[in-house]
Specification:
single chain; 225 residues; mainly beta; hypothetical protein yedk fold; 11-stranded mixed β-sheet; 3 helices; 8% helix; globular; peptidase activity; DNA-binding; Abasic site processing protein
Length: 225
Amino acid sequence: MCANYTPTRLDAISQHHGLERALFNFPDEAFPGYLAPILRESRDVAGQVEVVPAMFGMVPHWADTKLARQTYNARTETVATKPSFRNAWKRHQFCVVPADNFYEPCYESGKPVRWRIAAAGNEQLGIAGIWEWRPSGPDGLPLLSFSMLTINADGHPLMQRFHKPGDEKRMLVLLEPGQYQGWLEGELVNDADIYRPWEADRLTAEAAPLPPRTKAAPVAEDTLF
């Protein structure tokens, strides 16, 4: 399960997708509860895509924002029925999460070591996600939030190296660029090709331990690597 990733910078997003550059700030790395950019269908102009800031971790209208520490990933097997996700899924509130890379814990040394996973060609990753809206967030303003979708990765040559020994291996749903629009519009939600794991040779992985924690750079309480 992915609890930490590097969001793609806004300049790169706008250039890659031919969009007007959005005007908001976000941290270099995202953890549950942090704001990060997502792509979704425009609420104002039909058929257009917009870049908006959203909290990493789904926060339905009935939940406290602390729930984001538990809802940053949604299993494709249960996303349609779990209370935190089913409203967004039913309403086809799909998004693409632009990322330069993501991080997972590797226990091969006997202790958790953070590893960085990226596309082999260093291109942007597009992670399939869902978004939710609530009328008020911590600052009293409306809050968008999102969750990344995951699939089973038992037996995957690369992803089986991560997470605690004995735990089920999971992998993010990585979209091809040509699938972005269809995903956002909900046309591909039942397409089996969407939920196929990327081949291991399309990804690179290397150890990338977290720097020492400081008060200026907090991490999510449930992040253990």
